[in-house]
Amino acid sequence: MPRKNAFYAQSGGVTAVINASACGVIETARKHRDKIGKVYAGRNGIIGALREELIDTSKESKSAIHGLLTTPSGAFGSCRHKLKSVSENRAEYERLIDVFKAHNIGYFFYNGGGDSADTCLKVSQLSESLGYPIQAIHVPKTIDNDLPLTDNCPGFGSVAKYIAISTREAALDVASMCETSTKVFILEVMGRHAGWIAAAGGLAAEKEGDAPHIILFPEIPFDRKKFIARARRAVKQHGYCVVVASEGTQTKDGRFLAESGLKDAFGHSQLGGLAPLLAQMIKDETGYKYHWAVADYLQRSARHIASQTDVDQAYALGEAAVELAVKGENAVMPCIVRGKGKRYRWSIGTAPLDAVANVEKMMPRNYITRDGFGITDLGRAYLAPLIQGEAYPDYKNGMPRYTTLKNEMVPKKLKKTFKV
Amino acid sequence: MPRKNAFYAQSGGVTAVINASACGVIETARKHRDKIGKVYAGRNGIIGALREELIDTSKESKSAIHGLLTTPSGAFGSCRHKLKSVSENRAEYERLIDVFKAHNIGYFFYNGGGDSADTCLKVSQLSESLGYPIQAIHVPKTIDNDLPLTDNCPGFGSVAKYIAISTREAALDVASMCETSTKVFILEVMGRHAGWIAAAGGLAAEKEGDAPHIILFPEIPFDRKKFIARARRAVKQHGYCVVVASEGTQTKDGRFLAESGLKDAFGHSQLGGLAPLLAQMIKDETGYKYHWAVADYLQRSARHIASQTDVDQAYALGEAAVELAVKGENAVMPCIVRGKGKRYRWSIGTAPLDAVANVEKMMPRNYITRDGFGITDLGRAYLAPLIQGEAYPDYKNGMPRYTTLKNEMVPKKLKKTFKV
């Protein structure tokens, strides 16, 4: 088999550890020079392939590539560009194959969530039918933790750790001030459709009564009365109430609470997110003094307190993707398999892409307490191992040393440009 | 001199390192058993003294007290209770002295900001005139960094570190996604009157063009046109724009921007903070996709990434307060003195309380760039040393091991109760 180059791209929302997967892919590819030539990375993800904007990672030093292990976000850029179905936009797929052909690319490593698993599968199928077969391997990544067939998704463990720690820290703050000041604190976290991240806030509690006292999941329809009653009870029992709220918290009829039609004086839709809305609700109903925080991108880029387990798994999946490719596999995704037994162990398995693409894994109902406001022991047993270990970056002058790559572009070979 | 007990109280908004000062006070007092009996801590700050709710710290083990060094927030509780002037509420001061007398308290260590420096001074003065002289020592603490006569304030360095790191991390996230997604990211930080914390966001930048591209200070009147123009320029030049905005950002006529009279459909005042308001402004004027975060309590409780310099100084000031008391000092505050020369050095000095109380130290104008949107090299030189070193807490099961004290109460001796 003649030596082929590889294409690697980051897709969708970036994470604290997606670069660790990139590091795994590139370092492992460099060990297989007999089969894999250069690794080209898509500039800004898949649109880099469409535009023939390829980054030559062979220009990066060993230490720069290794620095990716401790650098958050997407070192080559990512994008939110979902390829349409082949029937809707065959030209895009054909363009991809043209670019791959022009640059002698035989391996496609796509690092993303459910959408990109689907794209990855289609590239594999279409390349076959177009007579230029590409081995397409999906490297899982999503803070939403909603991919099927893998026990968990790289990126999630670090967000979970950040949210659990932040919840505990903010709770200590509120607890020490509640006698005369803030009584209710609300932390809004990511997760539009699945409550995994909000659930991780539950790890802040060690014993009965510990914060958070209320978790709001997208899976549990929001009930204003119950919410207020629960907040009142917490303040009466503990002096304060900490709420971790998923941005995807919904009403019974499936509308996002944060988009409930509120307008400001100028007729703009509700500016704020969910947290200020819940805070106002608390104020109106109880008069309690409140504070709220919205972690937003801080939570998914917080490499400074990444989970070591998450970093290890992200790297291992990138490594495994290349090993699978070298073994001739196609249209697969390496995944995390949790060992049986009390002590947490994990290994790498393989899942066929047609079973991964476009399937969302929701929180099992039995991970959420019956009242809908907390996590069960079962949920805790699932979540706790994922935040183990602190993968600290190096520091210089009090700041983390994050790697910036040179990102030298590969000279274009195609005459045609392609508008994305 | 007969042995007297000491009273220690935490005042106002808590920080990541106020317990480190408590640790310094208690550990040092335990070394001076010949002069200092027990250290009683006010439950929820000064109102603990008024209510005769004293915590007996002698019941805590050596390791529990040492654990305070790595535990954020106020271990004994804090409060926002400003004592009125003596003429307005002499009863409160007399009550304090009664409680101190009943419990043989001769030392008053008050750990707080400008208001508590004032209270501390008054207690010293009034106790003298009431014939039960108390040595009152103020231990500085405030994330706002606005106390005079000390080079900086414990609590600030850790917030500064957190904000600088979070800004850099979120900026990497936005930079990698901006081609197809978010172009403007706004991080709202604390600081109602002084822009020290917002300024710390500037430490995220290492070279020209790095984020943050815009810092909004309370000291610089907000100019909508200039703000929008600057955001546009950053997006054009770099593809994205990161804004660090002080919650205290004001209009030219001194009104907080976040309280600018906006109402929602129900007539409620603006729910959100400054960040969503700025985001909407960006959206209206430019159409750029935005995201925003409000760090709120997360920033001041983030012990997981505290500045080692800050922790060291917080401890040293607690220690110095006790040493000053033992030497017979009164109505003073130990403070941080910055050494001369290029290499950062600090030592402990002493400031008289009458020069500290009720004086606010604002950001010097020459720490802010001429255009009002950034920090100068001078500002950077002041700020950078304060975030040096990472004072990591210990971890267990992936979570920081923060100390919870027993907080056993001292039996009450007074018959009278006092309503606070």
Strand order of the largest sheet of chain A: 3-2-1-4-5
CA gyration radius of chain A, whole angstroms:
23 Å
Structural class of chain A: alpha/beta
CA-CA gap between termini of chain A? 33 Å
- In CATH terms, what is the fold-level topology of the largest domain in chain A? Rossmann fold
Main interface pair? A-B, 81 and 80 residues
Number of domains of chain A: 2
Number of strands of chain A: 13
Question: What can you tell me about this protein's structure?
Answer:
2 copies of one chain form a homodimer. Chain A is α/β, with parallel strands linked by helices and 420 residues long. Chain A is built from 13 helices and 13 strands. Chain A has helices at 18-30, 46-50, 62-67, 90-102, 114-129, 156-177, 196-201, 224-238, 274-286, 297-301, 308-326, 353-356, 377-383; strands at 4-10, 36-42, 54-56, 105-112, 135-140, 184-189, 214-216, 241-246, 290-294, 332-338, 346-352, 395-396, 399-400. In chain A, strands 3-2-1-4-5 form a 5-stranded mixed β-sheet, sandwiched between helices. In chain A, strands 7-8-6-9 form a 4-stranded parallel β-sheet, sandwiched between helices. In chain A, helix 8 (224-238) links the parallel strand 7 (214-216) and strand 8. In chain A, helix 4 crosses helix 5. At the A-B interface, helix 6, helix 9, strand 9, helix 10 and strand 13 of A face helix 6, helix 9, strand 9, helix 10 and strand 13 of B.
What's the short version?
Two copies of one chain form a homodimer. The first copy, chain A, has 420 residues and is α/β, with parallel strands linked by helices.
